[in-house]
Amino acid sequence: MPGVIVTNPPKAEKKDVEALSGYGTATVGEAMGRTGFLGTHLRPIQQGVRVAGTAVTVLCWPGDNLMIHAAVEQCGEGDVLVVTTTSPCTDGLFGELFATALAQRGVRGVVMNTGIRDTAELRAMGFPAWSAAVSPQGTVKATGGSVNVPIVIGGQVIHPGDVIVADDDGVVVVPREHARDAAEASEAREQKEAAARAAFLEGQLGLDRYGLRETLTRLGVTYRTYEEVES
Question: What is the rounded distance in angstroms from the CA atom of residue 55 to the CA atom of residue 159?
Fold first, then answer.
């Protein structure tokens, strides 16, 4: 089946993307009802970096990065390039030269459901990247694929223009149409956690703050002294 390059897809509002950029992936995922996580296999090549941007999606064939070259043209300020392949692939489809071209266009980072290489150079230039593998294995440019079409990573569907949030913990996708609600829910969760943090600093236990003693009782969990257990 021939590929397609979709131009100018709708994107999440910039103000909503910027709002989401203030929260970590754990907060955003929890705020959306524990959804959107792309899986534990996607790991950052750097530490202490958080990005949020609108997805430019790419579907490549394994061992072939032709469509990443095509995708660069579709990328712009505030985007995050998100790449997967038609079948599992850990080859190094992305490296420092791609990052140089993307950085020049204002792209905030890359998420690769494949291999990545030139990691030292990427860290040195400050280009954030998350990937399923690190590999020096080279690729070809021989097979058509698609750009800005829905793709699936870790069981999550990513549409072009969705919000990608990525940090040390991993990568979360926020559907474009839910970006505002997700940002508001993330803020509410941050406030709730701030109140809990203050309470814990004063010595309150989670068992009491969250009413978990009643839960333990309902589940039949009992307290026994060491002597009672050993007798």
Answer: 7
